[in-house]
Amino acid sequence: MQKEFSLSNDKAIINFTAKYCNTPEQLLGSYAFRKILGSYLEMLKHRGSNIYKYIEEGINRCIDDKVIDDIIYAFKLLIVLDCESIIKFNSEYSKFLSNKDVLVSFIEGLYGYWRRLERYTIVHNNKVGDGFQSVGFIDANTQFSQLILNTYRKIEENIEGTKPKVYRQLPAGGNAGLIVKNYKWNCPEKYEKLVGIPFINSIVIDPPFISYPKKNTRDGVFAECFGNPLEECKINKEHWVCYPAKVGSLLAYIYFHRDFMAHGVTLCNLFELAKEEEYSNSKPDMIYVFGARDNADKVKTVFYDDVDNNIMLGYVSYGEEIDYFGYMKKMTLTLHNLIMIKRGFLPVHGAMVNIVLKNGKTANIIIMGDSGAGKSESLEAFRELSEDYISDMTVVFDDMGVVKWNGDGKPAGFGTEIGAFVRLDDLDPGYAFREIDRSIFMNPDKTNARLVMPVATYNEIMQGYPVDIFLYANNYENGEEIEFFDSVEAALPVFRDGARMAKGTTTEKGLVKSYFANPFGPVQKKEETDRLLVEYFQKFFQTGVKVGQIRTRLGLKGKEKDGPKEAAIKLFEVVKSL
């Protein structure tokens, strides 16, 4: 990004490298402020606002670039003078400054318009410009936020003639800041379109971070294509950023368009941001391109197994239909799972937890199930009961993991994510507010509202925990909370069917099924996965893993809270008896 400022799709991106403002005069004279003011005036005009009519009458002509210049000049004067002094100094402003109440409403509206935008600051640490250079990045974000607050307050004080009695220290700068840098990497010829797109080096977030994507559910499964989709797309490198992620044991380059910046930034709460030495001059295991433009009639959500270059490629084209974090997260995990299947490992859509009870008993438990089956809710129930039962609890994975064989020939679980992408409705109401300082919220006022929060360290998810209990999350029927199977033949049909009562996390409704409860790899590679299922489940029974199902009853009306909790209590009793 070369420009000092861009405004697109309700997202404001400020390039501190190109321009960094230290004073109110610099702020008001910047291209960014002019752009925001013009956009706000256009909105007022579209609404037929009385404030807009007042400004037109006060300036005595239709609003154009010259009028915007006059408004900015008036604001600069209001930094140092009150309305009466300005009118004495220049009588042309007498009509514009005559109604203080309307002026304050105008200032408040402009400030509110700015704060409703998603706001991002960027520093290119491999460039030298006239902007941000010597000030520390975190300090720069803090000072920028304070500059906006001080400018807004000073203008209002000089309009009203009094200081406010209540000061609200709201975050007024960037919601998130990125330090980006261009790196050379071992790029195959087919991926040259991605060369030159900067990598995210570090991220700073100013919570609470709340985004409002256009969609709040995901639809369908990702299909395989048999030609490189990058050959058909157009990428303006000025509008793109790459998040280098560690997804389990794999390295992923996740490229995203600036209009989906909120999803890209949210990745920092879900996947470990790789270190510079891990991706510089390296070829990734997988590449994901999110939001590219092409000539297709419909939005594409596809993956391509590039055997020649040993890269698994995910591709989602630009469109409002994919403006949901689930598309960012689930395609990344699909690419991971496809590689795991190729390597002979079993990807599991579920949750795994290592618990140590107060009586000293320990257990490593996997609860498997598709979206809404009760995986995360069961972990939440564990957390709520921890004071009574648990001395230590480590979340190995919350949504997607993989089972491999450890050195002793026993199954061990590994995670893919350091965070959790959970429904607000399925959490204790107070818990989300207690985590507000580190969580990222999405559409908190809508059905399927979500938050993404860190839950484990990368070292914890990659430690490899021997599997003691492997359960299928049954959310659709009553019965014994925990039921164990006595053979592979009895267990496999339940796990293969992947039945669940849809909870509104996708566009599905009612009782639905998906192969191995995992539409993110196993569905696309059924034949290969089925061979792994037979092999792994035989080993489970041979090595003493207790295989069964846990009835969370999450899909049954009235049992959304009590179902997972009762199942968790029963599971604690099982662990105590091990």
Which features would summarize this protein structure in a list?
578 residues, alpha/beta, Phosphoenolpyruvate Carboxykinase, domain 3, nine-stranded mixed beta sheet, seven-stranded mixed beta sheet, 25% strand, elongated
Give a description of the structure.
- This protein is 33% helix and 25% strand.
- The chain has three domains: 5-174, no CATH class; 209-342, no CATH class; 346-418 and 455-577, Phosphoenolpyruvate Carboxykinase, domain 3, CATH 3.90.228.
- It is of the alpha/beta class.
- It is elongated and about 90 Å long.
- The protein has 16 helices and 27 strands.
- The model is unreliable at 128-134 (pLDDT under 50).
- The protein starts with a strand and ends with a helix.
Provide the fold topology:
Layout: E1 5-8, E2 11-15, H1 24-28, H2 31-47, H3 50-59, H4 65-80, H5 83-89, H6 100-116, E3 118-124, H7 137-160, E4 176-181, E5 199-205, E6 209-211, E7 223-224, E8 240-247, E9 250-257, H8 261-266, E10 272-273, H9 276-279, E11 286-292, E12 301-306, E13 311-317, H10 325-342, E14 346-357, E15 362-368, H11 375-389, E16 390-397, E17 400-405, E18 411-415, E19 419-423, H12 429-434, E20 440-442, E21 450-454, H13 458-461, E22 465-466, E23 469-474, E24 482-484, H14 488-497, E25 499-501, E26 511-513, H15 526-542, E27 546-551, H16 562-577
Parallel strand pairs: 2-3, 3-4, 6-20, 7-12, 9-11, 11-13, 15-23, 23-27
Antiparallel strand pairs: 1-2, 4-5, 8-9, 8-10, 12-13, 14-15, 14-16, 14-17, 17-18, 18-22, 19-21, 20-21, 24-27, 25-26
